[in-house]
Amino acid sequence: MTEPKMNRRGFIASGLVCTGALALGAPALAATYPSKPVRMIVGFAPGGATDAVARLVAPYLGEALGKPVIVENRPGGNGAISNAAVKNAQPDGHTLLLSNSSFIVATPHAATNTGVNPVTDLKHVAMFATGRLVLLTSPALKGMSLEEIVARSKDDPSAYTNASPGIGSSNELAFEMFRRATGAQIITAQYTGTGPIMTDLLSDRVNMTVAAESSAEPYIKEDSLGALCTFGTERSEFLPDVPSSHELGIEGLDELMFWNGLHAPLGIPDEIVATLEEAFATILENEDLRKRLADMRLQTRLLRGEDFQKRVQQDWDMFGEIYQQTHG
């Protein structure tokens, strides 16, 4: 079959029409966004802390956007599966990633063959919540000062063991930053999850671990475990008797925290990114949401645009450096 011929004038006219359509495509898409329910992918199984955050935030975000936001769990590969799913999705704003910082800036350093670099392969839309990390100690170390623990570890490097939930986890790398900042000589044992860690910590089989405040608080308040410090500049309002790392004079840990953020495929139109940013700005003013996040021991904090991109890059570089120093 022979294709119909087009004269020069018709060719130019059709080219102008196509160019105009392409130019108008992104704004037109943004004007109707969202046009269907939005998938919010989470790299954790149902029931975990990040899954709980996603399921809390989703209805508020859906109300702000005017369409349902549906949480879809894609666990596996320490975030590699969920990161890849969003990287390869259509960049139309209808597939998003809600992740904690560990799966974006920490664990990928330990898995370099996944085909995804979350820092450069995703659009970082907004950070909306942060959480503190706590250095928990076993019952035998309760009441010991930082100076005593560091001094003992230097005298006997086999005296204490830190428990890590996995190579490259933010918990492990945060502890390594603490260890190097204080000069403590403490070995790390790798575990497959926090459950076995807490069992061994309670029985003094290991001596310390880094945990999220929400996980650490019950053990501290029932006095079954000790807490050497929270990482950051100030004490937590929920753990007022636990000093901050800054207060103890430990340098380099002031910005050490975990965060929750929203990410999207590269190529998503700026107008849709702006819509999502404004939606988060709106929902974070909701007192009910703020209270429910606080109940999870999360502080609301909105960071977007270049500010969020810089934070992602900063944390990536920080954890990458400490990972290389620790594991080579």
Automatic annotation (TrEMBL):
Coiled-coil region: none
Cross-referenced Gene3D superfamilies: Bordetella uptake gene, domain 1, Periplasmic binding protein-like II
A Pfam family that the UniProt record links to this protein: TctC
Domain of life: Bacteria
Keyword field: Signal
Signal peptide start and end residues: 1-30
SUPFAM superfamilies for this protein: Periplasmic binding protein-like II
Keyword Signal attributed: yes
Protein family (similarity comment): Belongs to the UPF0065 (bug) family.
Name by which UniProt lists this protein: Tripartite-type tricarboxylate transporter, receptor component TctC
Organism: Paracoccus thiocyanatus
